[in-house]
Specification:
Blueprint: H1 13-25, H2 31-49, E1 54-64, H3 70-80, E2 85-92, E3 97-107, H4 108-119, E4 124-132
Bound molecules: nickel (II) ion (NI).
The site of nickel (II) ion has 4 residues, from strand 2.
Length: about 140
């Protein structure tokens, strides 16, 4: 970690109260850590918008494994991109439904493209990609 800098921030009292309420609900014990996390969040979001930036993502899929060939299709698509699929977790939610979590890594554009292809596959009930950082540089 680099050396710490102290800054003063002028902020409307009502807005600050809302911020304090929010961070208390999220479990922060001080404003500084909440501010730092907000800044990191903004930086990660900005970075992930660049198509060529290296990102890590988790993709959550929910689907009905009884849909014909769906599980095979999803598995094939993952094999086609095996360099970018670091790991998968499969949970049998109930008799019919499966939840799968994939950890993806690669260029932002590639990770999004893989995720979009999987999410838009017919029979997938829900899918959500969360892009995060590898942690380097933050
Ligand atoms: Ni299953």
């Amino acid at each position: 970690m680099s050396e710490l800098s102290r800054i003063g921030v002028a902020i409307d009292s009502a807005l600050l109260q809302k911020f304090d309420d929010l961070i208390a609900r999220r479990g922060y014990t001080n404003r500084s850590e909440a501010f730092r996390d907000l800044i990191r969040e903004a930086l990660i979001e900005k970075t992930s918008e660049r198509a060529d930036s290296l990102v890590v993502g988790t993709l959550t899929l929910v689907y009905d494994h009884r849909v014909r060939m769906l599980a095979d299709r999803l598995t094939s698509m993952q094999h086609e991109n095996f360099h970018h699929v670091l790991s998968t977790l499969h949970v049998h939610l109930d008799h019919d439904n499966c939840l799968e979590v994939l950890v993806l890594k690669g260029k932002s554009s590639t990770v999004r493209k893989i995720a979009d292809a999987l999410i838009s596959t017919k029979g997938v009930k829900h899918g959500r990609l969360t892009i995060t950082t590898s942690g380097a540089g933050l």
